[in-house]
Structures are given as C-alpha cells and as structure tokens.
Design goal:
Oligomer: single chain
Helix content: 40-55%
Strand content: under 5%
Bound molecules: heme C
CATH topology of one domain: Photosynthetic Reaction Center, subunit C, domain 2
C-alpha cells in the first residue's frame, strides 16, 4: 500500500517535472531554420522569432541630424584647441558635436566631455578619450574596408546612446576569486562564463586572441603527428572559447562561418569566415593601438579589476547581430567622421603595432592561411588514396 502511494507520488512528480521541462522549451512555431549552405552538413541558421523581434527593435539606426550646407570658415581657424577636427567647417563641426552628444551622452549633454564654460579645456578625461575615439573611428572606416565594407561604423554602433558601451571586456586572470583548496585553481575555466556563451570554457579568450596575437588555429595540417603541431587539447579549448564568443556576439551558429564537414578548410567555408578573419585582426588593432593605451587617462572607476583599460570584442559593435544595426549604412550620412585628421602620434602608434605583427598590413596572411589549408586537404586526399591502395593490396593477399 505504501509502495502504491510512493509510486503515485513519483508518477505525479514526474508529470509535473515533465510539464515544467516542456514549458521551458521554446514553442516550435517561434523557431525558424534557414538553410545557408550544403545539404547534410547542418549549415543552418536557427532563429527565435521572439528574440529576433527584440533584437531588431534594439538595433535600429537613430534619427539622422539634418545635413548642413558646405563652406564657411574652418574649425581649426576659429577654435583654440582642435587637434583632429580642424578640417571641418564650423557648421560641420557643430553638427558633429550635436550628433556625438546624442550618440554617447544624451542624458549628460555637452558637459559629459567638456568642462562647463571652457570647451577648449582638457581637464576632463572623457574629452581626451573621445579624441582617440574620433581617430579610431576614422581608422575603422578608412583602413578596415575588408571588414566593415561601405557600411562602416559611427560612435553609435558601439555606444548606442550610452557613455560606456554595453559590451566591453577586461582581463580576467584565472577567473573570479573563490575558496581555497583543490578548487582554487580553475585555470580560468570550469565556470559558466557569460563571455563564452555560458560554456565552461576559458573565461577570457580576449587577452590572448583579441589583444595578443596567439595562434587561433589548432587543427593539425599533417595527417600523422610529426612533431610539427605543438597545439594541444588546452589550446583547443581556448580556440573554442573564442568561437563561442564570436557566435554569441553575432547571434549566429558555428556554420555561419564553417562547413561542419571540415572546420579548418577555407575552401568549404562560407565567405563570412574570411570577413571574420579580418574582424579578428581589426579588433586586435583597435585594442592594441587605441583602447588599451588609454589606460592612464581613465579614473580608477573605469578600469578593470587588474587595472587595465576597457576594451572591445566582436559584441562591442555587433551587439548580437550578424551585421551591426542589421547592415544599415549610417556612416554615409556623417561625412564629418571621414574628415577627421589623425595625429602624427596616431600614425606612429599604428606603425609600431604593424611592426609588431598586428593590424592592417598582414592581409597577405589570409592568403597564406588559405594556401596552407589547400595543401593540407591535398595531403589528406593523398593519404586516403594510399590507405585505399593498401587496403586493396591486402584484399589481394599481397604482403604489405
Ligand atoms: C563625446 C564627447 C563630446 C561631447 C558630448 C561634446 N564634445 Fe565638443 N569636443 C569633443 C572633443 C574630443 C573636442 C576636441 C576635438 C579636436 O581636438 O579636434 C571637442 C571640441 C569642442 C569645441 C572646440 C573648443 C575649442 O575652442 O577648442 C567646441 C566649441 C565644442 N566641442 C562644443 C561642443 C558642444 C556645444 C557640445 C554639445 C552640443 C559638445 N561639444 C559635445 C568632444 C565632445
Ligand atoms: C569600436 C567601438 C567604439 C566606437 C566606434 C566608439 N567607441 Fe567610444 N568607447 C568604446 C569603448 C570600448 C570604450 C571604453 C568604455 C569605458 O570608458 O568604460 C569607449 C569609451 C568612450 C568614452 C568614455 C566614456 C567613459 O565615461 O568612460 C567616450 C566619451 C567615448 N567613448 C566617445 C566616443 C565617440 C565620440 C565616438 C565616435 C567618434 C566613439 N566613442 C566611438 C568603444 C567605441
Ligand atoms: C563569425 C565567424 C565564425 C564563427 C561564428 C565561428 N567561427 Fe570558428 N573560425 C573562424 C575563423 C575566421 C577562424 C580562423 C581564425 C584565424 O586563423 O585567425 C576559425 C577557426 C576555428 C577553428 C580552428 C580551425 C583550425 O584550422 O585549426 C575551430 C576548431 C573552430 N573555428 C570552431 C568553431 C566552432 C565550434 C564554432 C561555434 C561555436 C565556430 N568556430 C564559430 C570563424 C568563425
Ligand atoms: C568596429 C566594429 C566591428 C567590430 C569590433 C567587429 N565587427 Fe564584424 N562587422 C562590422 C560591420 C560594420 C559589418 C558589416 C559589413 C558590411 O555591411 O559589409 C561587419 C560584418 C561582419 C561579418 C559579415 C556578416 C554577414 O552577414 O555577411 C562577420 C562574419 C563579422 N563581422 C564578424 C566579426 C567578428 C568575428 C568580430 C570579432 C573578432 C567582429 N566582426 C568585430 C563591424 C565590426
């Protein structure tokens, strides 16, 4: 009898649990799957219509400031302290100041970046930071066409009406502090990390890959271990952590950029993977040349737990969408952003970063990567052929 009650209770608990689990499942009518590539390799983009609606609403181009008539005196001739916007006419200059206020500090106004009553003053860190932001935006739009195309970016792409963009990152050395003992060293992983799609992969793939230039590719390019592939399982976990961020940051599946038949092959990959390749190099340059070196300018309140400056990753611009603002070309309405002159110091910093192997000039490395991948595929085909021949010989009873 008691047995019976127990069974009944277990049964009803199971029913309740099952109902709870099912209720947590997404209504299939809300899901949409679109085939993006070859059949049979899972190249699909699955979209949740409800989430998509919210994302669309959040990622709209804001109202465009009315354009100004060209001509008139230049800002550089009239104002006291303009180092990068001197080529703009006064009307263009004022239009831009109005626009950046709406994009970056709509609630705080001009005084977010200016000492009240003294526009020329440098005694406020936000002004010094913004000047670098003007130069950085110019660099993105002028030198990174391979990634941002004609769409380009404005301050709004990252800021969306907030002084501090929604998605920034700081160094995390080994994860948050925790209890001692055996659990103390997690090597920066085994904790669900929001930065890496709530996986328990290494929590900070940004320091090595988007600030540093660690090698991302981990799949061996020779069939047999030859001692030429020093990459191990741990390296692979770091690569996967970055990939989780890239998928999450763009709101796409892995197959948006990869053919699941072979993750390493460039031949079979959708062209978006090459765009992403340039995106990785661009983001490195933004962090190395612009964002990280701003560290001494910030008050402590803006710095990370290890004292480093706030930095950018894919999500800073993309905000969960495959193209920022769904590919809306906002830049074309603000030619003022292309009229920024970069300082001599900016030139030097970019040149130094390039010498260290980062940034725009290593475009040919993509070609090299493609070439290496092609060789590897040939080698695999050859190995498969050889294996087939050996097998055939064996079938014939030959000694091998
Ligand atoms: C997000 C930061 C930011 C906001 C907001 C901002 N400015 Fe500026 N402003 C700057 C920067 C940076 C410079 C220096 C540009 C340069 O060095 O070429 C500047 C320079 C100026 C100057 C030139 C001062 C001089 O004599 O050298 C004026 C005038 C000015 N801003 C007016 C405004 C007004 C008016 C507003 C509000 C409608 C405004 N700014 C909002 C960042 C900002
Ligand atoms: C690629 C993305 C990106 C773009 C484009 C961009 N910013 Fe930023 N901006 C950042 C990041 C990241 C920070 C660091 C956040 C922080 O300060 O905590 C930042 C910080 C700032 C700050 C300091 C905010 C604070 O209170 O600490 C200002 C002001 C600013 N940006 C203005 C601008 C202006 C003006 C433009 C356009 C000319 C611009 N930004 C374009 C990413 C961007
Ligand atoms: C937005 C495009 C994009 C998305 C999404 C993406 N990847 Fe990648 N993946 C790349 C690029 C680009 C590289 C090469 C990076 C480089 O060489 O700098 C790469 C490299 C890799 C590698 C190493 C390949 C090799 O040759 O060793 C693996 C493994 C990988 N990705 C797995 C994944 C997984 C798993 C996902 C989903 C969680 C994913 N990727 C999502 C673009 C993407
Ligand atoms: C400075 C802002 C910015 C950053 C940072 C950025 N992107 Fe982009 N990305 C863009 C813009 C703008 C486009 C749209 C280009 C176009 O319309 O042709 C784009 C397009 C793409 C596309 C092509 C999407 C499509 O539908 O064809 C991929 C893939 C991509 N980005 C991946 C990345 C990855 C991966 C990262 C981080 C490593 C990254 N991006 C960082 C601005 C950015």
């Amino acid at each position: 009898m008691r047995h019976e009650t127990f069974r009944k209770t277990t049964l009803s608990l199971t029913v309740v649990a099952a109902a709870a689990v099912l209720a947590a499942c997404e209504n299939p009518a809300n899901m949409e799957a679109e085939q993006l590539g070859w059949r049979g390799v899972g190249m699909e983009q699955v979209t949740n219509r409800k989430l998509e609606e919210a994302l669309r609403a959040a990622n709209q181009m804001p109202e465009i400031t009315p354009p100004v008539t060209p001509g008139g005196p230049r800002a550089g001739d009239l104002y006291e302290n303009v180092q990068v916007l001197g080529d703009l006419t006064i009307t263009e200059f004022n239009r831009l100041m109005t626009a950046v206020t709406a994009w970056v500090s709509p609630d705080e106004g001009c005084n977010y970046c200016h000492v009240p009553g003294d526009f020329a003053s440098e005694d406020i860190y936000t002004k010094v930071v913004s000047r670098r932001m003007f130069e950085m935006t110019k660099t993105i739009n002028q030198d990174w066409h391979a990634h941002v195309g004609d769409t380009g970016v404005t301050c709004y792409t990252c800021h969306q009406g907030k002084p501090v963009p929604e998605h920034i990152w700081f160094e995390e050395r080994g994860g948050p502090p925790q209890a001692g003992g055996l659990a103390a060293s997690r090597a920066g992983q085994n904790l669900a990390g929001p930065q890496v799609g709530l996986s328990s992969l290494p929590n900070d793939p940004f320091t090595p890959f988007l600030l540093g230039e660690e090698e991302i590719r981990v799949i061996p390019t020779t069939v047999l271990p030859e001692g030429t592939n020093p990459r191990n399982i741990m390296d692979t976990e770091w690569t996967y952590a970055l990939m989780m961020h890239m998928s999450d940051g763009l709101g796409v599946n892995c197959t948006f950029c990869h053919n699941s038949r072979s993750f390493f092959s460039w031949d079979g990959s959708p062209p978006q993977r090459v765009t992403a390749w340039h995106g990785i190099r661009m983001t490195r340059e933004l962090n190395q040349v612009y964002l990280d070196p701003l560290q001494p300018e910030y008050p402590d309140s803006q710095l990370g737990p290890h004292g480093d400056a706030p930095k950018a990753n894919c999500a800073t611009c993309h905000q969960g969408v495959h193209k920022p603002l769904y590919g809306a070309n906002m830049l074309q309405h603000y030619p003022e952003l292309m009229a920024v002159t970069r300082s001599g110091q900016d030139e030097d910093m970019r040149a130094e970063a390039r010498d260290n192997g980062a940034g725009a000039t290593i475009g040919s490395a993509a070609e090299e990567a493609l070439e290496a991948a092609r060789h590897a595929i040939d080698a695999m085909d050859e190995a498969a052929e050889m294996a087939e021949e050996d097998y055939a010989d064996e079938e014939d009873g030959d000694d091998i």
